[in-house]
Each structure stands twice: as C-alpha cells, then as structure tokens.
Design goal:
The complex is a heterodimer.
Chain A lengths: L3 E4 L2 E4 L4 E8 L5 E7 L6 E7 L2 E5 L6 E7 L2 E7 L7 E8 L11 E2 L3 E5 L1
Chain B lengths: L3 E3 L4 E4 L4 E7 L6 E7 L5 E7 L4 E3 L2 E6 L4 E6 L8 E10 L5 E5 L3 E6 L1
Parallel strand pairs in B: 2-11
Antiparallel strand pairs in B: 1-3, 3-8, 4-5, 4-9, 6-7, 7-8, 9-10, 9-11
C-alpha cells in the first residue's frame, strides 16, 4: 500500500464552523506534513510532524490546529476560518524524518476547502 | 529573492520536441532535490530525484550543480501525456529538525500535436 488517503475530498464550511481534515497512511512513514495550495500556486508547507511530534510550524494562524494521534494518522482541525483560507489542503508522508533523509514525500489527493 | 525559482511558463512544444526546464535555489544548506509533476487539480507526484552526478529515467534527465545552486530537467521526445506543471523541489532541515520541502512556482508544459 503506497497510498496517502485524505477525507473529505471536498468541504464547504462557514466562518463560524468547526471541521476537521483527516489524513492516513499505512506505509510505516514516520514524517507527515500539511500543505496549503492556492490556485496556480505551488504547495506551501504548513506543519511537519516527525515521529508524532510537531517539528515545524510555518507561522500558521491558530485557527488551524494540527494533531497527530498516531504514526498513521494526521488531522487538521479548522475553526473560525476566513474566505481567503479556501484552498486545496494536501497531506504528505515520507519514510523517516532524519536529517540525512533524502526520501521523497508521497502526497494524498487533497481536500478542496471552500470557506463561505 | 524566492527560495526556489523556476523558468516562467507556459512552454508550448510540439510532440517529439526536446524541452529543458531550469531551477535555482538560494539555500546552500539544501540537502536533497526533486522534480515533481502536478496535473491539473491533482496532487504533486514525484517524477525523479536529482543527484549531483546527474541521473536519467527514460526520456527524462536531471542535473544538479551544487556550486551554482542550479537544477535542470530535460525531457526528450515529448508526449502529449507529458503536459503538466513541473515543480522544482528542494529539501532542507527546519529549525526543529524536521524536513522541509520548498517548491518552486512550477513551469507549465503543454505538448501539442
């Protein structure tokens, strides 16, 4: 199984809603990532979890809250989002998070989020 | 200056053409380098890693020059199915020790009949 899965595929939420995005991988990867991608722009890193601990937060607003319950799962909790947060949210994983790691990252299909 | 810069697109080429993409990066401590491909409304997928000695995978050849902080991708005998956005990607280590991928803005390739 070389797949990263994400749910839901599409999500429409109001600015007062609370929702969660989910990501799962069963490849035994120990690093997991959240990216945000706006139309016609490259993915931008949001968070990195290494061995289930948050190792990078790219100054993301607190209305985005990541969670890594175990090595296979990664969640992104959303609260009080703004319309400009509408984007494709991509999850990725890679085999391990060591500093000399040259492994590529495997991306999930993404959740297309619209904030109304 | 952006951390990873790529040729502006789009590149419109006829089927069978050879096309080259260039990329420069600013962080000299970058450790690993990749080319990813992204189709419209899909996730990025790894095309190939890039090694200092240069590497080839079928019609695709990647080169890395660490001294010049320059990466290239050559596609020979272009196919219609090569039409996509090609993303130059650089891996470095973040302050907390986690690996961080930085993506270039991407170059759109359109292969035409």
């Amino acid at each position: 199984d070389t797949e990263v899965t994400q749910t839901p595929k599409h999500l429409v939420m109001g600015m007062t809603n609370k929702k969660s995005l989910k990501c799962e991988q069963h490849m035994g990867h120990r690093a997991m990532y959240w990216y945000k991608q706006k139309a016609k722009k490259p993915p931008e890193l949001m968070f990195v979890y290494s061995y289930e601990k948050l190792s990078i937060n790219e100054s993301v607003p607190s209305r985005f809250s990541p969670e890594c319950p175990n090595s296979s799962l990664l969640n992104l909790h959303l609260h009080a989002l703004q319309p400009e947060d509408s984007a494709l949210y991509l999850c990725a994983s890679s085999p391990w998070a060591g500093q000399q790691d040259s492994y590529e990252q495997y991306f999930g299909p993404g959740t297309r989020l619209t904030v109304t | 200056r952006k951390e990873v810069e790529q040729d502006p697109g789009p590149f419109n080429v006829p089927e069978g053409a050879t096309v080259a993409f260039n990329c420069t990066y600013s962080n000299s401590a970058s450790q690993s380098f990749f080319w990813y491909r992204q189709d419209c409304r899909k996730e990025p997928k790894l095309l190939m890693s890039v090694y200092s000695s240069g590497n080839e995978d079928g019609r695709f050849t990647a080169q890395l020059n660490r001294a010049s902080q320059y990466i290239s991708l050559l596609i020979r005998d272009s196919k219609l199915s090569d039409s996509a956005t090609y993303l130059c990607v650089v891996k470095s280590v973040g302050p907390g020790g986690g690996n961080k991928l930085t993506f270039g803005t991407g170059t759109q390739l359109k292969v035409e009949l």
